Amino acid sequence: MIREYCKIFAAEARVNENFGFSLEVIPRYLIYRPANSVPYATVEADLKSQCLKYCTMDPKGKLITQTGSEVEQKCSTFQHWIHQWTHGNLLVTQMEGVECKLTNIGVVTKSKGYQGLTESSSPEVFEQFLTHHQCNYYCGLLGLVPLKTLESPQQPKMKGSRSPLLTRKLGSSSPQTQRKGHSPQMSRKANSSPKVARKAQE
């Protein structure tokens, strides 16, 4: 799945000539070995060099992103892009590879079951990414919205969540007023009761 996302990312990057080379997640194949005690295995192309870790997450859940080289900056941009593309539901937490060839991709989701993924993460990881990600030159080329700007609409949303209650409080008076104006009790009081009519006749 991440490979397909990376293809879309690369297609958008190619539109901008200043972006330069793009990233590629190397394919991984599932093979069946009936004579082996573990019949299924995955294989991928040999990168023929030592893999560098561009993005990792330590056991405590802290994101560690390298941004020194051009590849590392583009990996950081890919993190930002996929987070924005999935409306904040998917976050890449691990990337390593040789130059622009990526492998061993780790992802977490905001909620379990998103796009069929079973591994979810705590909200703190996503909040940490929003706080610590630094937009770079390539984020600007792709027109990505700064993450700190994305945080600001959350405050109006929280205020907006109270609006139904306020609406109920503000609007609760009007139905009551209408009920009072057209209540059966008022009409009963307005009409003369049978007892009063009898006394008048007597």
TrEMBL record:
- Supply one GO molecular-function term: protein serine/threonine kinase activity
GO cellular component labels: nucleus
User: Which InterPro entries does the record associate with it?
Assistant: a-kinase_dom, Kinase-like_dom_sf
Q: Residues in domain Alpha-type protein kinase?
A: 1-147
What are the start and end residues of every segment in region (Disordered)? 153-202
Q: Where is the composition biased (Polar residues)?
A: 170-194
Which Pfam families does UniProt cross-reference here? Alpha_kinase
Any one biological process term the GO annotation gives: cardiac muscle cell development
Q: Which UniProt keywords apply?
A: Disulfide bond, Immunoglobulin domain, Kinase, Serine/threonine-protein kinase, Transferase
Kindly provide the name given to this protein in its UniProt entry. Alpha-type protein kinase domain-containing protein
Q: Which organism is this protein's natural source?
A: Tetraodon nigroviridis (Spotted green pufferfish)
Q: Please name the taxonomic classification of the source.
A: Eukaryota, Metazoa, Chordata, Craniata, Vertebrata
